[in-house]
């Protein structure tokens, strides 16, 4: 502060620079937190969709008529798709692998024995 009770230009520039650094750090934290939250939310939705699809698959007698990737039909889950495949294990065991995708990325992989 100078004798007249005001701040110099250099003091203001330093204060603005420090404030800018703090704001950028906080905004980076908020963005990272939001991305993590979205990722966890997508995984939870994928987990629940996989469990529901597996139960439907089992109730249909383990018939998988369509090969490849299929889209979920519910309107709120149109960005999600899935694929089901039967895997033969040794000693007569079989397994089902159900993969759930969000947009183009695989975000959940469920394997269960039957």
Key descriptive features of the protein:
114 residues, alpha+beta, 4-stranded antiparallel β-sheet, 1 helix, 45% helix
**What is the strand content?**
25-35%
Global mean pLDDT: 86
- How many domains, in number, for the residues? 1
Instruction: State the helical fraction.
Output: 40-55%
Report, as a whole number of angstroms, the end-to-end distance.
78 Å
Reported for the largest beta sheet, the result is:
4 strands, antiparallel
Structural class: alpha+beta
The low-confidence runs, each spanning 5 or more residues with pLDDT under 50, are none
Number of strands: 4
The backbone outline, from C-alpha atoms, is rod-shaped
Could you explain how this protein is built, in words?
The protein is an alpha+beta fold. It has one domain (9-113). Helix content is 45%, strand content 25%. The protein has one helix at residues 9-59, and strands spanning 70-71, 80-88, 94-102, 105-113.
Summarize the entry for a quick read:
The chain has 114 residues and is of the alpha+beta class. It has one domain. 45% of the residues lie in helices and 25% in strands.
Secondary structure topology:
Elements: H1 9-59, E1 70-71, E2 80-88, E3 94-102, E4 105-113
Antiparallel strand pairs: 1-2, 2-3, 3-4
């Amino acid at each position: 502060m100078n004798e007249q009770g005001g701040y110099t230009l250099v003091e203001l520039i330093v204060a603005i620079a420090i404030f800018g650094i703090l704001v950028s750090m906080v905004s980076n934290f908020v963005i990272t937190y939001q991305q993590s939250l979205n990722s966890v939310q997508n995984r939870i939705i994928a987990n629940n969709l996989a469990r529901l699809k597996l139960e439907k698959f089992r109730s249909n007698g383990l018939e998988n008529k369509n090969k490849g990737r299929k889209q979920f039909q519910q309107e709120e889950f149109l960005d999600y798709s899935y694929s089901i495949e039967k895997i033969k294990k040794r000693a007569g065991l079989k397994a089902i692998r159900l993969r759930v995708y969000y947009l183009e990325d695989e975000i959940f992989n469920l394997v269960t024995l039957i």
